[in-house]
Amino acid sequence: MDDTPYLMRGLQPVSTESSTLISSSDFLNEPRLRDWVATHFLRRSGKDTPTTSDAYKLHLILKEVQDQDRIEELFTEERKHNSELDTWMSEGFVSTFTPDNLLENPPGSLGYIFGRYLTDNNFQVDIVPRFEPKTQFEYYALRSGQTHDLEHIVCGGGFDILGELVPYYMRLSNVPRFLSPELAGSVNAMQLLGSTRIMMRTGLHYPQSYPMALRAAQCGMRVGQESGPIFMARYEDVFHLPIPEAREALGIRGAVDLDSREASLAWHEYH
């Protein structure tokens, strides 16, 4: 009689001549990524290691792990039948505004609200310093960095740790609707790992805030599923408009302004 547990049936032994850990997954093969996942999925938060630093480290690791040539091939192929993406890429628009430029917009407008956020918190416009993109994926990444904080505002996610889940899940649900599966999976790797670390750490260490984390994820997914291709939005054209009108002009639908500040205070790095 086979006494192998039901859920363990079907396992097959694997042999290899390699003297080191090896897998069919490029992600699992990278020791720095294994350490990143174990550390930032399971750790508590603290002022000594801001959560924002997790994302920067992940960006550097993924840049080396992912097959950049393959991603370029996918973008090139996608542009042959996706005219909107091709136009967006061909224009190659990059922002050059400053916080002072933003504050020239009317109070209550998208640009003014963003400018006040940057000025009041002494933040920079660019999450990652501006650079000259040499590839299609580099342009996609540059533009994504320039628009991330604006996605917070127009998609309804606050500037706190759980509010971060709104733009994360917006991208995870929006991008696959407008790009091929393999390309969407490649460009969303950062969002997938980044969002999951927040969900995991909230559930493991701050369970009182987990319902809000789920709510934030749901809000982000709703916007992503109901809206046009947000990753190609040109916010600069609507800086002068109030938020509801800016959303309408950009084709952003289903957004609600979620207040997750109190739930985010459970994270220790806020104390």
Structural commentary:
- There is one protein chain.
- This protein has 271 residues and is mainly alpha-helical.
- It has one domain (68-270).
- Helices cover 55% and strands 0% of the residues.
- The protein contains 14 helices and no strands.
- It has helices spanning 26-29, 31-42, 51-65, 68-79, 83-91, 99-102, 110-120, 136-155, 165-174, 181-187, 189-205, 210-226, 243-250, 261-264.
- The chain is globular.
- The termini are far apart.
Task: Describe the secondary structure blueprint for this structure.
Elements: H1 26-29, H2 31-42, H3 51-65, H4 68-79, H5 83-91, H6 99-102, H7 110-120, H8 136-155, H9 165-174, H10 181-187, H11 189-205, H12 210-226, H13 243-250, H14 261-264
Helix pairs in contact: 2-3, 2-11, 3-11, 4-10, 9-11, 9-12
Q: Spell out the helices and strands N to C.
A: HHHHHHHHHHHHHH
Number of strand segments: 0
Please tell me what the overall shape is.
globular
Give the strand content. Answer: under 5%
Question: Quick one: biggest sheet?
Answer: none
Low-confidence parts: none
Distance from first to last alpha carbon: 58 Å
Radius of gyration: 20 Å
